[in-house]
Design goal:
The protein has 12 helices and 10 strands. With 275 residues, the chain is an alpha/beta fold. It folds into 2 domains: 213 residues, 2-enoyl-CoA Hydratase, Chain A, domain 1; 48 residues, Orthogonal Bundle (Lyase 2-enoyl-coa Hydratase, Chain  A, domain 2).
Length: 275
């Protein structure tokens, strides 16, 4: 299985990228500097290979658009995502599904734009794994999170990799080995959720957060994300070297970096060119 799922380049070249207008399970729209992807697959937004391919293709497409500053992932209905459709675990389907899931999560990580995930309902199994690969997570009190794969004789491979970076290895083991659900409040305490917002205030609060992020330079947002994500798994020395290299050798070459300092000195609002 490792040999199959490690062929990242094989995924990108094996099949042509889907046109977002043909997406069936993901609703895609661009709202100014924001690209929004919405899960729309029945009452539980169960994941299947095509749905994950659509997400991977859509995020990859957006990643190359300098006019997009932020990616938002949300869902239609009362359940954010109840996990992977059980039919996708049978036989060869499991290999294809996991390859698609891997591609979707890597696309979220590699996208220069920050990825904001909005969770207003249960995120179970694969749904919780998708949440973990977001850069920022906003949830309502009715959200809950669980990794129940152990109860059907499996374990969550993507969560087993990403969750330790977020909540630590011991808490990850507790979640993976028991399969127990945690509340949105507990998820915030553990660091899986950034902000917990009452349902009635969700739309306004998310819009405010989006406005705050997209008011910044898109080019600098991408570098800041890369400095943080790029240091994950590295030693402290190597992470510092990576961050400083981006800061000194890339950030200072940006027009927006010069504009930001100039605006500060001139006591005015910066006029970003996103480059």
């Amino acid at each position: 299985m490792e040999e199959h799922i490690s062929t990242e380049e094989g995924f990108s070249s094996a099949a042509p990228r889907r046109d977002p207008e043909t997406f069936e399970f993901i609703r895609y729209r661009v709202e100014g500097p924001v690209a929004r992807f919405t899960l729309q697959h029945g009452d539980h937004n169960l994941l299947n290979e095509q749905m994950l391919r659509e997400l991977a293709d859509g995020v990859t497409l957006v990643a190359g658009n300098a006019a997009i500053k932020l990616i938002v992932l949300d869902a239609i209905g009362k359940v954010f995502c109840a996990g992977v459709d059980v039919g996708e675990y049978t036989g060869a389907r499991a290999f294809l599904m996991l390859d698609a899931f891997h591609a979707a999560c890597i696309a979220m990580v590699d996208a220069p734009q920050p990825v904001l995930v909005v969770v207003d309902g249960a995120a179970i199994g694969g749904g919780a794994e998708l949440v973990a690969f977001g850069d920022l997570v906003v949830a309502t009190p009715r959200a809950r999170f669980a990794l129940p794969e152990i109860t059907i004789g499996m374990f969550p491979p993507l969560a087993s990799t990403m969750f330790p970076h977020i909540v630590g290895p011991k808490r990850t083991l507790e979640l993976v080995l028991t399969g127990e659900a945690i509340s949105a409040e507990r998820a915030r305490e553990l660091g899986l959720v950034n902000r917990l917002i009452p349902e009635a205030q969700l739309q306004a609060s998310v819009s405010e957060l989006i406005a705050k992020i997209t008011s910044q330079s898109g080019a600098v947002l991408g570098m800041a994300k890369r400095a943080v994500v790029g240091g994950m798994g590295l030693s402290l020395r190597d992470a510092l070297r990576t961050s400083m290299n981006i800061f000194l050798n890339e950030l200072y070459r940006l027009e927006d970096s010069e504009e930001g300092l100039r605006a500060l000195l001139e006591k005015r609002k910066p006029q970003w060119k996103n480059r």
